[in-house]
Amino acid sequence: MRKTGFLFKTHAGKFSFSSCSAFCHSPHCLHPSVPAEPGFQNPSNVLQKFIKPGQNFAASLALRHLSTAHSEYKGDQSSRENCPINYDTSEEAEPIDYWEEEEEVEPEIGDGGDGGGVVFQNCHWGEKALSIANQVVKEHTVDMELYAFKTSPRGYIYVRLDKLTNEYGCPTMDEIEDFSHQYKKRLDEAGTVEDFPEDLALEVSSPGAERLLKVPDDLNRFKHMPMRVSYVEDGSHGLETNKIFFLDCINTDLGNCVWKLVDVKENRDPSAKGRPLNRKQKDWRLTLPYATMKRVTLFISS
Fold first, then answer.
1. How far apart are CA 100 and CA 115, in angstroms?
2. Same structural domain for residues 79 and 149?
3. 92 near 5, Cβ under 8 Å?
4. Residues 232 and 193 in one domain
5. I want to staple 54 with a disulfide (CB 3.0 to 4.6 A). Which of 25, 38, 103, 262 is the partner?
6. Do both 224 and 201 map to the same domain?
C-alpha cells in the first residue's frame, strides 16, 4: 500500500473557515437587499457552518511517498472557524507558493471547473482517479455528487462536490474534509507507481459562486434565487444583454424559459436615481429560447 503524507492548505484572503453568517469572498458577497421569492432565504440565515457560494472553500491535500508527520492546529474550535488560517499536517510538504493554481479563465460548460463536467487533460490515470472518487461519493456520502473533476499532467486532482440538499449546493466543512480523507486513503491503496504520478496533489471544494447553471437542467433547482442571465435577443446582431432575473417558468415542450426582473440596482434605469422598479417593470416577462441563453449563474451582488 502506498504511504503518503498530506497537507491541508488555505489561502488567506481567498479561502476561509467560518461558521459566522457575515463572511464573503472578495470581491463578491451576497447582498441582503436582494428581494426574496417565496421560499427564498437570505444566505445570512441559512449558511452557518456552510461554505458560502462566493467562498469556493478548498480542503487541499498534497499526496506524497513519505510517512506522515502530523502537526495539530492549536486553539479552540471557534478561533479555527472564524479566522483565515494556513496550517499543515506534513513537515515535508511542498511550500504552498509552489503549488499549481487553476488557471483563471472564463468558465464554460463541461470545463471541469466552474462549468462542471470531467476533464482529464491527457492524463492516462485520470479515469482511474475519477472512478475512485465516484466510489467514495457513493459509499461515504448520502446527498452529494461530483459537480466537477479535473486532472492535470503535473499530478493535480481538482474535485468539486455538489450537496444536492443544500440550497446553494454547498457541503459543510466537515463533509469536505471527510471526503478528502476517504479519497486520499483510496488513492493510497489504489496501486503502483505506474498507475499514478509519484506525487499527487488533491484539492476538494464546493462549486463556488461562479458555477455555470445548465439550461434547463439546473434552473428549477435554483428557481427561488436570483440569477444573472446573459442572452442574445432577436435583431441584436449577436450582442449579449445581461439582466438579473427570477425564473418564472420553463416550457419544456416549447424549449424556452420565462423570466421576470429582480428589483436590484443592476436592473434599474440610472435616471431613476435609485427608485425601485415600477409595476409595469415588475409585471414584465421575457421569454427566451434555450439557445439564446449564453450564460446563467447565481446572482452575487458586488
1. 20
2. yes
3. yes
4. no
5. 25
6. no
Query: Does residue 167 share a domain with residue 61?
Result: yes
What Cα–Cα distance (Å) separates residue 146 from each residue in 25, 49, 228?
23, 21, 24
Residue type, 184: K
Q: How far apart are CA 240 and CA 255, in angstroms?
A: 20
CA distances from 189 to 56, 131, 182, 274 (A): 29, 13, 11, 60
For residue 211, is it within any domain? no
Strands 156-163 and 144-151, by their bridges, are antiparallel
Q: What is the pLDDT of residue 98?
A: 56
| Cα separation, 265 vs 108, whole angstroms | 27
Whose CA is closest to 224, among 187, 262, 280, 181? Answer: 262
Give this prediction's pTM: 0.68
The DSSP code for 221 is G
CB 203 within 8 A of CB 99: no
Question: How many other C-beta atoms are found inside a 10 Å radius of the C-beta of residue 203?
Answer: 21
Question: DSSP letter string over 129-149?
Answer: HHHHHHHHHHHH-SSEEEEEE
Residues 86 and 185 in one domain: yes
What is the per-residue pLDDT across 215-258, written as a single tens digit (0 to 9) for each?
999 999 999 999 999 999 876 778 999 999 999 999 999 999 99
Evaluate whether residue 213 is within a structural domain. Answer: no
Whole domain around residue 278: which residue ranges?
220-298
| Joined grid coordinates for residue 81 | 472557524
